[in-house]
Amino acid sequence: MERVYRNRPYRRDLATFQVQVKETDLLIRADREDREEACRSILRWRSVVEEYIRLRPEFLTALEPVGEDPLAPALIREMLHGSAAAGVGPMAAVAGAIAEAVGRDLLRRSRSVIVENGGDIFLRIDEGETSVGIFAGPRSPLNEKVALKIRASETPLGVCTSSGTVGHSISFGKADAVCVTAPSAALADAAATAVCNRIVRKEDIPGALEWGGDIPGVAGIVVIFGDRLGAWGDVELAGFSG
Fold it and tell me: Are 69 and 80 a contacting pair, CB within 8 Å?
């Protein structure tokens, strides 16, 4: 699927560059273009995930939590914790976890960093605010009409989106977009998947929002289903024109 949502500019004061290693395809905004460091970081964190899968194959295929592992690398523990909190398999947290790990590496040389990994975002901005538009696909009239306003004081923050109608990720729901914010991008990613799984009809939105709001660590949730929008928690919505 072409990532058309990447053509929508925000934070024009930051350098923008793309780095791809195997399946990991990141769009990065930072104070400086740093492709080499980003590539090294992706390779480092992918190797951590790949090695853990080799040692524990169920980590790759499980659709439910597989249990904590206090001896696992920090990235893996973050994925295990986020997936356990949301009640989904650990790979539901991988895109957010990689985005955050790479972003934190880049923060050693930039004060502001935004890393997008297939719709899952880690951001830390030094000052001001930014808007994160919600891509809900062509089925929804609200597609790219709604954005989350994120202030510097709220970051570092994970902003992750799951969809039952857009993309190739496994989903048991039919919402066009479920966007979750949390201090941990791995948790936000896993929670977005879990909430999306619970929405098959528009009538499911209130219950799914309430359920998702009970996940420890989740800060805010936005759901788009066709022409219907629901929100819970600490979110500030704004119009978005791309």
Answer: yes
d(CA 68, CA 76): 9
The pair of structure tokens assigned to 139 is: 């089925």
Distance in angstroms (rounded) separating the CA atoms of residues 212 and 149: 20
- Read off the pLDDT of residues 88-131 as tens digits, 9 standing for 90 and up: 999 999 999 999 999 999 999 999 999 999 889 999 999 999 98
Q: At what angle do helices 185-197 and 74-86 cross, to 10 degrees?
A: 30
Q: Which of 165, 173, 166 is nearest to 191 (CA)?
A: 173
